[in-house]
Amino acid sequence: MAVSVGFQGHLGLRKESSLASGGAIDNWQPFTSESLELSYNNVYSDKVQATPEQVGGQRGNEVVTGNITFPLSPQNPAQWWTCGLGQDTSPYYVERPLKSLMLQIDKEAGCIQASGCMINTMTFSSSQGGELACSADIEGVGMASCTVGVPSFTATDAPYLHQEASFRLNGTADTSVTAFSVALANNVGTDLFGTNRVRLDIPAGKLVVTGSFTKLFDDVTERDAFLASSVRSFQVDFARNTKSFTIYCPKIRYNTRPANIGGQSEFIMETFNFTAFVDDPATEKSIRISGDTA
């Protein structure tokens, strides 16, 4: 039986000096799934008389879009946080303009390389019994076939687990969180072509940070905070040996707090959806990511 292509594959990265400037891949990692796709907008004329068929088929423009999901580990490359938020050193937080990524997806049954990849959205999540994962939605400039970069690549560490997470809600430790998700949306521009066939630029717009967490209903603290429309904070830390990874939203407000009661034998779980914000953009950041790399 053939081995899964996903099992064999790995991903190469490079932070580009300018949009789609290319260069040599300088870091590698495993990935869970990818769906990068190159699309052509071909223009067909329907204004030619005396024919019932489409005429022409000239190339209008081309775009790369898709998603890459990968497990987040102590040795995870830092290019994601640099290009997703903007800082070159930890802690990473919003800074403009954002840099683009060169991505090389080696599935050992074929290798593709995509340049000028901007991170539109990035979502971190984990749940009890599972791994910490990151899912990044990509808007890119171009794609081409390439040769296999590092066919002998093997990941040397395991992903962070939910059981390794430490949650702090408004600065207080909470051990009842069963799942969480934090998403940052860069709202990148996607239709800037001018007279070019490929995108001139993919600028990042306003950063919007949203999230949610689900916890066992063991006290009314967060429910009361929701009902009072209080300003809270959310922090999750993953640590293993000397490495760590932290997501911190200093100011959040809860948007919804549904509490559905199941059967008599079930625990009551509460899910709090929130939005992160700042009062003073000059001194505050809606999200900060701190991460060690190998």
Features:
46% strand, 18-stranded antiparallel sheet, mainly beta, 3 helices, 294 residues
Structural commentary:
This protein has helices spanning 5-8, 79-85, 221-227, and strands spanning 10-15, 27-29, 33-34, 37-45, 55-71, 92-93, 101-106, 111-127, 133-140, 142-145, 165-169, 172-174, 177-185, 208-216, 232-240, 243-256, 269-276, 288-291. It is mostly beta strands and 294 residues long. It is globular and about 75 Å long. The two termini are 35 Å apart.
Task: Tell me about the largest β-sheet.
Answer: 18 strands, antiparallel
Estimate the global geometry from the Cα principal axes: globular
Please work out how many helical segments DSSP would assign.
3
Over all CA atoms, what is the radius of gyration? 22 Å
Encode the helix/strand succession as letters: HEEEEEHEEEEEEEEEHEEEE
Low-confidence regions: none
Mean pLDDT level:
90
Describe the oligomeric state of these chains in a short phrase. Answer: single chain
Kindly state the percentage of residues in helix: under 10%
Determine the N-to-C terminus distance.
Answer: 35 Å
Beta percentage is over 45%
SS content category: mainly beta
Strand count? 18
The total tally of domains equals: 1
Question: In summary, what is this structure?
Answer:
With 294 residues, the protein is mostly beta strands. The protein has helices at 5-8, 79-85, 221-227; strands spanning 10-15, 27-29, 33-34, 37-45, 55-71, 92-93, 101-106, 111-127, 133-140, 142-145, 165-169, 172-174, 177-185, 208-216, 232-240, 243-256, 269-276, 288-291.
